[in-house]
Amino acid sequence: MDLQIIETDLNNILHLRALFLQECNFQIRYNACHERGWSDSYLIDMDGTNIGYGSVKGKDDLTEREAIFEFYIMPAWRKNTSTIFEKLIAASGTTYIECQSNDLLLSSMLYEFGYNISSDVILFKDGRITTLEIAGATFRERMPDEHLFEHNHEPDGNYVLEVKDDIVATGGFLLHYNKPFADLYMEVREDQRQKGYGSLVIQELKKACFISGRVPAARCNISNKASKATLLKGGLEIAGYMLLGEIKTVTK
Question: What superfamily would CATH give domain 129-234?
């Protein structure tokens, strides 16, 4: 078995990455790292056939390349996955694995080759249809140059929730994720929280997202209980977690 790990340009792995995205069929949190030049690509060649790829990015600093965050092997060659991954670690010089728990192939490598595994982010997907209503509340598109309250955590957004001519919440969705997925976000004005407005915004953002031809998804910090409850009440469900682990020293 002649196994080669070859550092390459992004364009040379795109056909394999298309297979990865089709197999996953969920939002990839770090999808934009490729297009923005924040990743290095490695082609996996076995006996002269390109059978997969690996992608590496910085764990914290975008200029570093210390974490494997994507890994794909075509199914017919997966009996050799552990051997291939070990050689990818050596070739890339990485010291971390950062992956989504719903990415079964890479998360299996994390548990085989990693330690000190932790999670700080919950991932959400579309879950159920909700019929939330609040008397007097209107969800609509934001008008040009419309004055909004000061935002502390999220962008201003393209949609607002208005109650009696008062904008109490805003939201939108980001489109730099793998199609057809989009990432929902919202913020409720501080003096209007715990009234159900956030969940109503999420419910309506889901509809707007689908109308635009995208599939809604979201994420929040694992310690943010209020945000988690809001997303669940608005009709999303937990899809997985972001995982981070250090790579063990391989002993021969």
Answer: Gcn5-related N-acetyltransferase (GNAT) (3.40.630.30)
